UniProtKB/TrEMBL annotation:
Enzyme's top EC category: transferase
Domain Protein kinase: 175-304
Pfam family for this entry, one: PK_Tyr_Ser-Thr
Assigned keywords, A-Z: ATP-binding, Disulfide bond, Glycoprotein, Kinase, Magnesium, Manganese, Membrane, Metal-binding, Nucleotide-binding, Receptor, Serine/threonine-protein kinase, Signal, Transferase, Transmembrane, Transmembrane helix
Protein name (Swiss-Prot/TrEMBL): Serine/threonine-protein kinase receptor
Regions that span the bilayer: 123-145
One Gene Ontology term, aspect cellular component: activin receptor complex
GO biological process, alphabetically ordered: cellular response to growth factor stimulus
Species, as recorded: Scleropages formosus
Membrane topology of the entry: Single-pass type I membrane protein
Localization annotation: Membrane
Length: 304
């Protein structure tokens, strides 16, 4: 018969206990003789529950060869918080006492190295970049607003223009406003009398000074006198302060703008051809670059 090896405590008897002794038809407690194969090691074990600090013993007895029990002189459970605690040991009656000591040696914790501290230059770049981009966007928007070109075109006629303002007898020119012919985005168009002829007066509020200046500058361009272009007479400022008005005076056409006329009238083939020819002549002249115009300076090409 082989004896125990070096460091091995021989186990022949263990303390016995069975909580289900009535069901299993065994003794409830006592001693148990351990038997097994000669080349296998024998151990004692104990199992119990911990119900809110109250220890409830489940079983005790002999345990067959288990390397987890090798060379353990005391019965110590090491699991953190199992439903049933278990321990095993070597040596006679070593399971008489049992205890629980959780194994706190877990897997090694990897400590991440601290992130590098950003440099002062990086902090300044990331802080000032959004402000710089926003400032450039605002400056670009402001520049585009200041240099925008308001649309030119006819004045839309409104069926019910409302009560017209009084017809003052103007002082800068012997010109009298007679009736409103149209209202539009930038003002209204009056039929007026200048000496012995009828003229059209487009009146801008002072808030639309930029639109008035743009139209005035186009009319004042050298070489803008042509039979197919609207004849310009004058541009004036009337009134002072918040009641100031900006006037553009041109020749008067009884039938109004071509767009409004075509909306309510049918033209003959000959009239249509005449309209097309005169429009083409006017556009061609606007787009033409004229070096010298009847005593005036050179006329630039105008595209719109």
């Amino acid at each position: 018969m082989l004896g125990p090896s070096h460091g091995e405590a021989e186990t022949r008897e263990c303390v016995f206990y069975n909580v289900d002794w009535e069901i299993d038809k065994t003794n409830q407690s006592g001693l148990e003789r351990c038997e097994g194969e000669k080349d296998k090691r024998l151990h004692c074990y104990a199992s119990w529950r911990n119900n809110s600090g109250v220890i409830e013993l489940v079983r005790k007895g002999c345990w067959l060869d288990d390397f987890n029990c090798y060379d353990r002189q005391e019965c110590v459970a090491t699991e953190e918080n199992p439903q049933v605690f278990f321990c095993c040991c070597e040596g006679n009656y070593c399971n008489e006492r049992f205890t629980h000591v959780p194994d706190v040696s877990g897997p090694p914790v990897k400590i991440k190295p601290p992130l590098p501290t950003p440099s002062l230059l990086s902090v300044l770049i990331y802080s000032l970049l959004p402000i710089t981009v926003l400032s450039m966007a605002l400056l670009l928007a402001f520049w585009m607003y200041r240099h925008r070109k308001p649309p030119y075109g006819h004045v839309d006629i409104i069926e019910d223009p409302g009560p017209p303002p009084p017809s003052p007898l103007v002082s800068l020119k012997p010109l009298q406003l007679l009736e409103i012919k149209a209202r539009g985005r930038f003002g209204c168009v009056w039929k007026a009398q200048l000496l012995n002829e009828y003229v059209a007066v487009k009146i801008f509020p002072v808030q639309d000074k930029q639109s008035w200046q743009n139209e005035r500058d186009i009319f004042r361009t050298p070489g803008m006198k042509h039979e197919s272009l609207l004849r310009f007479i004058a541009a004036e400022r009337r009134g002072t302060g918040t009641e100031a008005e900006l006037w553009l005076i041109t020749e008067f056409h009884e039938k109004g703008s071509l767009s409004d006329y075509l909306k309510g009238n049918t033209v003959t083939w000959n009239e249509l051809c005449h309209i097309a020819v005169t429009m083409s002549r006017g556009l061609a002249y606007l787009h033409e670059d004229v070096p010298r115009c009847k005593g005036e300076g050179p006329k630039p090409a105008i595209a719109h």
